[in-house]
Amino acid sequence: MSSDRKTSETVVSFNDARPLETLFTRLGCGFGQNVSVENLPFANDDVSIGTESELQTSVQGNANDVDLPQTIRQSTFFSNLYKRASSGETNKKPINKIERYLARAPENTWENSWVRFPRRYLSPYAQKVLGRDLLLDKDDPASGSRKDSGKFVFLQEGEEWLRLPVSYLLKLSLADAVGDGQFSVSIRNRGVAMLDNFLNDNTSPETHSFYLAPSGQKVNAPQTAADESALRFFVSQLAVFYANEKLGLGANRQRAVVYNSPHPPVRQRELNDLVPDSFATRFLAEAI
Predict the structure, then answer these.
(1) Same domain for 202 and 62
(2) In a designed cystine with 117, which of 96, 151, 248, 282 is the match (CB 3.0 to 4.6 A)?
(3) 229 and 101: one domain?
(4) Domain residues for 210?
(5) 162 and 197: one domain?
(6) In-domain check, residue 288
(7) Residues 124 and 209 grouped into a single domain
(8) What values do phi and psi take at 256, rounded to 5?
(9) What is the CA radius of gyration of the chain?
(10) How far lies 191's CA from each of 164, 194, 197, 210, 288, in Å?
């Protein structure tokens, strides 16, 4: 009987309107006919929208100037294959296919190639960002450089050059632009905060929302999210244009391009069939 009485009392207490009224009032929602739907927990206005975009990249330029064809020709894989084919040790068909690939880039366009330019083009702040990103531990300046930093920095004719994926170039370009002192502190701080919205996976740049789009009865949430996505794409275009003009790509006969595409480039699939996975591993590096 004691157990039944407690259960009954609990049900009566739960169904009593007074605790609910107190709760809703404390939440600022009102109660009964005065309830405010917009102030209810997890109502429509509580939803926000963020998006992530993945872009495609290419570098335009002569095979003697662009990173991808140079890297292929300078690789141990290509050298060994060429020697074996020349000596008759192996069929010449594989090396001939690679030679055709390197000789027939439509409009001198190299999909997913990296870029190369002298390090001196970077502003002091961009140099600082790059130096931190190449640390073994980004939060520990004493940790030293990453073991694979040689894949990103090399000497050419006695000068230090950078070899970078376009996905990281976008971040470094933005850092260079906002760090040269021509903008106000507020704009610089906003630009610095946006650096982390540019992600590097060594091939396709990934960006995520600069801000979350609100929703609600008075807001067209899909349109707001689309507007933010378009703004992010525009900033990406500005960053790559800046890199072409200010970071020495154009001066070194390269032009980076960033664009939207639902499918990987056809020539990228062709290249994947021509080179072994071990080459791709040596060609790339851990993301910066």
Answers:
(1) yes
(2) 248
(3) yes
(4) 48-283
(5) yes
(6) no
(7) yes
(8) -80, 145
(9) 28
(10) 21, 5, 10, 10, 19
State the total domains in the chain: 2
Q: What is the pLDDT of residue 8?
A: 46
3-state secondary structure of 86: helix
| Residue at token pair 């070899």 | 163
Report whether pLDDT(10) > 60: no
SS3 (DSSP) at 27: coil
Asked if residue 82 and residue 32 are part of one domain, the reply reads: no
Answer whether 194's CB lies under 8 Å from 186's CB: no
State the Cα–Cα distance between residues 226 and 107, nearest whole angstrom: 32
Q: Measuring CA to CA, which residue among 252, 245, 200 is closest to residue 57?
A: 200
Whether 53 maps to a domain, the answer reads yes
Mean pLDDT score across all residues of the chain: 85
Burial (0-12, 13-18, 19+ Cβ within 10 Å), 264:
middle
Number of neighbouring beta carbons within 10 Å of residue 27: 13
Band (pLDDT 50/70/90 cuts) for residue 12 is very low
What whole-number distance in Å separates Cα of residue 119 and Cα of residue 149? Answer: 14
Assigned token pair, 158 = 């006695």
24 shares a domain with 150: no
Residue 136 covered by a domain: yes
The order of strands in the sheet holding 198-199 is 52-54, 206-208, 198-199
Q: Are residues 120 and 92 in the same domain?
A: yes
- List pLDDT tens digits, range 247-265: 999 999 999 999 998 888 8
Query: Which of 32-41, 45-54, 84-93 comes out lowest in average pLDDT?
Result: 32-41
The verdict on 23 and 56 lying in the same domain is no
Residue 162 phi, psi (nearest 5)? -110, 145
